[in-house]
Structure formats: C-alpha cells, structure tokens
Write a structure and sequence with these properties.
By secondary structure, the protein is of the alpha/beta class. It is about 40% helix and about 15% strand. It folds into two domains: about 30 residues, no CATH class; about 80 residues, Rossmann fold (3-Layer(aba) Sandwich). It contains four helices and four strands. Strands 3-2-1-4 form a four-stranded parallel beta sheet. The longest helix has 20 residues.
Length: about 130
C-alpha cells in the first residue's frame, strides 16, 4: 500500500527549510567576516611578536629569514643547547641594534625550556624548528 503525504497549506518543505536556514546562517556569520576595524574596534598592533623554538642550523636560518620581515619582531628564542640559544639571542640583538627602526623593541630573551617561552603572553606566534625526534 502506498503512503501518501498530504501537504498542509503554509507548511515548509525540506528544501524550503534548508534555504531559509542557509540564509539565516549567512546573515549571522556576516559580522564575523568583517574585520574588527571596520566595525569601529581598535586594530591590534601591526607587528607580530615572535618566539623561536629550536635554533640549530635550520632554526637559525629560519630565524634570520623572519628577521628580514618588518611585520615580525623576534622577542624570544629557545634551545636545549644553551650556547645555541645565546648565539641566536645575540643574532637577534645585533639585527635590531643595526636596524634602529624598532622603537618598541624590548630585547630578546633566551630560554632553555620551551614551556617558559610558551607561557609568555606577549608572544603572538611561535616558530618551531626542532628535529622530529624532540
């Protein structure tokens, strides 16, 4: 026996429901797409503060690359080898000392434990350059 469905007047079909749900979702998501500065909020700083974990050969090369971008500012380095961490800190300090255009630069701190670097709230991003066995 066939089961016939009777559509009530004014009832919403599945297709109609999905259409309305998609429209409502898009309308609710639209404010999240706009940047905060367009809605009158103050934009965050233009410079990304960066920490670097692992400053061996490859890590130091990546660190030097990041120093070349004006949009980033390296403020912390970390390595289990204290000598490498100190050398990387000196490289960063020398770079910003020569550049002279980083007026808000507070210096670079060298760490031996990555957890100390990650605990800093003033770091926006972390460059992780450790070998895969760490």
């Amino acid at each position: 026996m066939k089961h016939l469905s009777v559509k009530k007047p004014g009832a919403l079909s599945r297709r109609g429901f999905l259409k309305h749900a998609a429209t409502a979702s898009a309308a609710l998501a639209f404010p999240a797409i706009l940047p905060a500065s367009a809605r009158g909020a103050t934009a965050p700083g233009n410079r990304i503060t960066l920490g670097c974990i692992g400053v061996g050969r490859m890590g130091l090369a990546d660190l030097r690359t990041m120093l070349g971008f004006e949009e980033t500012q390296v403020i912390a380095v970390c390595d289990v080898d204290a000598g490498r961490a100190q050398h990387a800190r000196e490289v960063v300090e020398a770079h910003y000392g020569k550049a002279g255009k980083h007026g808000t630069y507070q210096g670079c701190t060298a760490y031996g434990d990555f957890r100390e670097l990650l605990a800093r709230e003033d770091i926006d991003a972390v460059l992780i350059c450790t070998p895969d066995h760490w």
